[in-house]
Amino acid sequence: MDIGKYLQRIGLSSPPGALSPRGPAVAPQGSPAGGAFEEPQPALRGAGQVKNSETGCFGPPFDHLISMVSLGQGVGGGGLLALRRWVWESGFREPLSLETTKTDTGEPQTQGHLDYRIRREEDMHFLECRGEGGKRKDGGEWTGMYKFTLEPRQRENFAEMCDYHQSSPSSIFFCKSLCTIATPAGRLTYIGHRLITTRFPTAQAALNTSKRELQDEEIPGILESEFGVVLTSPLIPKDQEIAPPSVMY
Fold this sequence. Notes:
Blueprint: H1 3-9, E1 36-40, E2 44-50, E3 64-75, E4 80-89, E5 96-99, E6 109-111, E7 114-121, E8 124-130, E9 143-148, H2 159-164, H3 172-175, E10 178-183, E11 186-191, E12 194-199, E13 208-213, H4 219-227
Antiparallel strand pairs: 1-3, 2-3, 2-9, 3-4, 4-5, 6-7, 7-8, 8-9, 10-11, 11-12, 12-13
């Protein structure tokens, strides 16, 4: 597999808002205003390990590629006063931009209907969220998403894990047929023999998730009508149990 083409296809090599060849220029929540500016520094790649929701285990190192951007905060004609590092996440759940300098306090960062925090243990950072059950503001529990370090990585470092996800019984991408898209109201996911519709909470309605069991013969039609995917050959759906990894990370 060509790693560069794969990353471009899933939108990780050039996140939305990439305005400069030096790296993505993002406008994260809490950016300074009123005469201040933020100067984008070259984008870096970090390595994460995703926590599997079915096995409860973290994946191996280099399981997930993360884009990191450092923004210099300046005033007026501007010398840089400070650097703030942000994690730009466009390949896991919803697009996120989270400030890593808030790790020491574990301060929540709200985006959409969820709270997120980055918790630090020595050199390892843990991205967690709460609010999936609509309890963000009244003591909902924090759920782990993945852990990562801030050490810069090269794209080639992820080649081995790209093969892993195409061949390992511990990878969801090997065990399950999978297709997912964001929708204006939430997210639509086909996985194995299920169609999962998630509607995010609004002022009028709570978070709602519905699941529909599918027969083999229904799946190609669902992919075409709901996802715009037209298959040119027969589909044999994969719906295997995901095995816990042989090594705990």
